[in-house]
Amino acid sequence: MKLAFFDDFRLGLIQDDRVVDVSGAVTGIRHTSPQDLMNQLIGGFADHRPRLEEAASQGSAVPLGQVRLRSPLPRPHNTVCMAVNYMEDGTRAEAAPINAFLKSPDAVIGHGDTIVLPDVPATIFEAEAEMALIIGKRAHNVRAEDAFDYVFGYTNFIDMSARGLPPPGNTFYQMKSRDTFAPMGPWLVTADEVSDPHNLQITLSVNGEIKQSFNTSDMAHKIARTIEWVSSVHALEPGDVIATGTNHRGLSGIQDGDQIDLEVAGLGVLHLNVRDDLRRTWPRETRLERADRGLEGTAPQSSGKYAPV
Predict the structure, then answer these.
(1) 188-231: per-residue pLDDT in tens?
(2) Averaged over 95-112, what is the pLDDT?
(3) pLDDT exceeds 90 at position 168
(4) What is the mean pLDDT of the chain?
(5) Comparing C-alpha atoms, which of 101, 78, 76, 79 is closest to residue 5?
(6) Distances (CA, A) of 76 to 4, 108, 168, 240
(7) Average pLDDT, integer, range 2-29
(8) What is the full DSSP assignment across the chain?
(9) How far apart are CA 213 and CA 202, in angstroms?
(10) How far from the centroid of its chain's Cα atoms is residue 226's Cα?
């Protein structure tokens, strides 16, 4: 099942390239916000699913082009992002130590929304393609062998990064948690529709040109280990998000006017716009392309405020 919010956060089910309004099936869920509605729907999904299916069979489907899709999880309590969690196509000799960071709930945006690059002296802004999983029930000190019992579903996720902000070493919070820096969607796909989350192709295109293309099979700390570790740090609740990391080799600087499309196989295509009021520019080369030329690090800013003198 593919769950979505659309227009004024009405609940919908996706059927091919159409959406059916099923908000009438969840009127009995008393809630304080769209996120609260989704949390409760996820937590009690076994009871709610028959009503959703009945509503979908009786409702009329509307083409997706006629609605505005919203983030299926507009304000998660926890958005945990795994750090350096890919083997980078075998170029890493060993997995990096397991690590993660949190993103602010206010960083979330959805399909068709705009990533806004802030007026800060970042050396580069990068959009990191990721698959995210959604927690289905309270998870605390979960054993790895039981981890998939806690996965409700999956969605596309972009981990936006403003790299190189001063002072050196003061990194994750100011680099990752800015407004619009956690795009996800376009909908949530329940776990029963994903046969093997460790064999999904992930593709990110910028202005129609593929920049990142990798498979979740390259993940260093797999989903079971990730849930085991994160839930040992703090409890997770229905509707919480864990973004599973990216392969950094295809990252490149994004800039004003860019159109970004992220597709994790089977999870739809998440489309984003980019706005930078400062109109800063970077070369279009990826980290891999720079490495092939014997260059280290990310591409230097070409023009605009904060460009190297």
Answers:
(1) 999 999 999 999 999 999 999 999 999 999 999 999 999 999 99
(2) 97
(3) no
(4) 97
(5) 76
(6) 15, 8, 29, 6
(7) 97
(8) -EEEEETTTEEEEEETTEEEE-GGGGTTS--SSHHHHHHHHHHTHHHHHHHHHHHHHHSPEEEGGGS-EE-SSSS-S-EEEESS-B-TTTTSSSPPPP-EEEE-GGGEE-TT-EEE--SS--SEEEEEEEEEEEE-S-BSS--GGGGGGGEEEEEEEEEEEEETPSSTT--HHHHH-STT-EEEEEEEEEGGG-S-TTS-EEEEEETTEEEEEEEGGGBSS-HHHHHHHHHHHS-B-TT-EEE----GGG--B--TT-EEEEEETTS-EEEEEEE-TT--B-----HHHHHHTT--SSPPP-BSTT---
(9) 6
(10) 16
* Amino acid, single-letter form, for residue 11: L
CA distance 309 to 304: 10
Q: How far apart are CA 49 and CA 54, in angstroms?
A: 9
User: Are 106 and 179 contacting, i.e. CB atoms less than 8 angstroms apart?
Assistant: yes
Class of domain 79-292: alpha beta
pLDDT of residue 129: 98
pLDDT of res. 8: 97
Neighbouring C-beta atoms of residue 171, cutoff 10 Å: 15
Q: For residue 273, what are its two tokens? A: 């716009």
Report the 10 Å Cβ neighbour count for 29: 15
229 phi-psi bin (left φ>0, alpha ψ -120 to 50, beta other)? alpha
Locate tokens 């992220």: which residue? 262
Q: Is the peptide bond before 72 cis (omega within 30 degrees of 0)?
A: no
Instruction: CATH 3.90.850.10 in the chain: give the residue spans.
Output: 79-292
pTM, to two decimals: 0.97
Asked, as a colleague might, if the bond just before 186 is cis with ω within 30 of 0, I would say yes
> What is the band of 169 on the pLDDT scale with cuts at 50, 70, 90?
confident
Band of residue 309 on the pLDDT scale cut at 50, 70, 90: confident
